[in-house]
Amino acid sequence: MLFLLSPYGLSAQNSPFLEISDSKLANGIVFPNWEKKQVFLHTYYVDGNNPSASDGNQGTADHPFKTISKAAEIMEPGDRVIIREGEYRETVHPARGGESAEKMITYEAAAGAKVIISGSFLLDIKRWKEGRGWIYANHEPYTEDSIITSTRIWQYDFNGNEFGGYNPFGMVNLMHDREYLQYKKVNMDRHFLRRGILFLNGKPLEQVMNPVDLASKDSGAFWIEHNGLRIHVRFPGNSRPDDYRIEATAKEQVFVPLEYGLGYVAIKGITFQHAGNGFPVPQRGLVSTNRGHHWLIEKCTIEWANSLGLDMGNEMWSTVHQPGLGYHIVRNNLIKNCGIGGLEALGAKQMLIEDNLFENIGWQNAELAFESGAIKIHTTINTMIRRNVFRHISYAPGIWLDYLANENCRITKNVFADIITARGAIYIEVSRHDCLVDHNIFYKLRSQYWLSGEYGAGGSALYTDGSDSIRFSDNLMLDIENTGYGDYLNADRIVGSRGGVTRWHSVTNNIFIDCRKHAIEFPNMYNFSNGNIFSHVPPGYLKMGNPLPALLLDIEAWQKCFGWEKDGKKAEVGGKLNPNSLELSITGKTIELEKLFLKGPFKDYQKFLNINIDPRLGY
To answer: In terms of residue numbers, what domain contains 258?
Structure first.
């Protein structure tokens, strides 16, 4: 069987995934999609590059507005704005939302146009001066005797007007609510760096804590004076400022209503970039619904947020919850280069997150603040996460369902590749009721050992902390440093009226290849496994934690002790996945590959050589 990619990605007909429904939630009910076809009452136009454009115009195709903000100010339910190609350095504050699924307010890039809404400004090349007044290399304390260096440092003075009341270069990253931040366990340097980012030709420059650090940074770096109004820069290889297009973040957010709770807003085909936002919580994304409901974000790029790319919930736990919070659709987007998280939502229900690419998330290395993740959701119900790709992620899990966040949720047909985290590719914390995790692929997962000692979660495919009732079925795990499916009991953590019991989990029909600690790790006997395939696993790959002493077993002993895995098998198969091309190969003798039949997420393992397994449809 040959699988071909169309120009728009895989179709349902040629996808190598098993032909199972991915439209149903964990309870078997079809996800209730609220989308309706739009009939626009009025269409406005914005064209920042048109010499005759003006916010005093009528916003027609021939007489467009100059700014998106003007359209956002006047649009009514059922209206849309078509934005023509250009870079718009503004923060857009929608004045109102739509009235219903048929009468939304829509912000849309013109067909084929590259529309960028940016939270940065260009630095004036004429305002650069040679750095002075500071020692830029290692030196004896309290003296001016520095190491002799030929390094050339430049400085730039902001006048303050660039920022409009919010200067990220004068504000530290440190989260506002620090209830769960464990100061004694974490290096706080990242938290006390400033929020501002400097970009050279679109690439971020490293920020350092002290001026004496600059001389050693051959690839370039910058340091910020105490008041945030002067920066000192070492350009790469002692180059000059006029060698670059230099941008600096000036905004906390670039698309956000000023009022809470706006609903029925659609955003399509727009690139949002460059936010100098602080570490959550509160969750304040580069793009924000500001506690809204029924937003549709489709075919957008959200990139280079200092902390969070997209927030869609109630921001934090000490806020008044907005009525009807959630019901968002996030589809076919590229969410990348976000320092802490890609998409976060507290209390947002019935979300549909599908066909997105999340990559390079978590680079700020602040995982012990407990708010990281390509996706991190609290207290959600009836949420579907399907056909997404999570890759090249460090210091953050792929998906973190936190605090009563797995009720009737489903995570299906996603790819998790090249992830380094203390929490696992999927981490489900103190959550209960029904959750289905099925037909996913996990590859090359690694652990932050310095952070994972408490729960042993890092480098695992799925790890649960005090959670109940998870069905983990038909997944493929390949090159897993820790455990394929792991549990932490956490009996003492009270949520609602009881602590964790970590019971009623089932692990069925999965393929575990090269899981180097355990394939399955259960804390007690009140769980179940059957029909799994185990290949290249170490001795004691099936663990039963309680009663003590913990049992480290193989499939034969597992069957005798608990009556499980009557349909399970050992195999001798291998494989590899290219996280960039998403080409997968499963290898082994025919008799071994036959053991995989009807196990895991795919149709036909006998022909799985260099098969593209990108699950996204219509990307």
So the answer is: 39-119+253-349
